[in-house]
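Try it yourself: sequence plus flavin mononucleotide, in.
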Amino acid sequence: MNPFDQLIRDRESCRKFNGKAVSKEDITTIITAARLAPSACNGQPWHFIAITDEETKAKLAGHMQAFNAKAGAMIVMIEEKSNITSTIGSKIKHQDYAQMDMGIVAAYLSLAATSLGISNCIIGWFDEAKTKALLQLPKKKRVRLILSLGYTDETNVRPKIRKKMDEIVTFIE
Ligand SMILES: Cc1cc2nc3c(=O)[nH]c(=O)nc-3n(C[C@H](O)[C@H](O)[C@H](O)COP(=O)(O)O)c2cc1C
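Structure, out:
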């Protein structure tokens, strides 16, 4: 299997972390890869807060689903203002390119972590107001997603449950 196919098959959402810490070095490698993600007009409208500090991590986990308490680190993804071309483009085309960019960079972070053997889960279900208060972020900023990272004692990758190809694709030949 080619390495990309293998990577996307290996990636799955981990909800059973074992509490082992994730190193700052690995987090740096993950973000260095995600930095190369594409974004509308190359606006790169993101800022990451990487948390390994036990106390902050525990407090943040308190604003998330319980399983996150055993994550070894978290990357909080904050949407920043994009550049002028992306912002104007969004208005003209009635799209939210910055929010799309955040989803793409989340996928890159997740895959980069997987490539290092670090289990992870993209988290959209968290208390945004409490997260911003904890991290002393201005109220008007948006925290779009959090990536929980860590290790698991699970050994098997679960079968992927996905819609069938003919439900999601229309070929015009
Ligand atoms: C934008 C987004 C938000 C998500 N939020 C959560 C979440 O809050 N909690 C959770 O357990 N999983 C969350 N997930 C993981 C999805 O549930 C998961 O990707 C999906 O069920 C497919 O399973 P798999 O990742 O194991 O292949 C989220 C995924 C994405 C892309």
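One thing you can check immediately is this: Residues 12-13, 15, 65, 121-125, 145, 160 surround flavin mononucleotide (CB under 6 Å).
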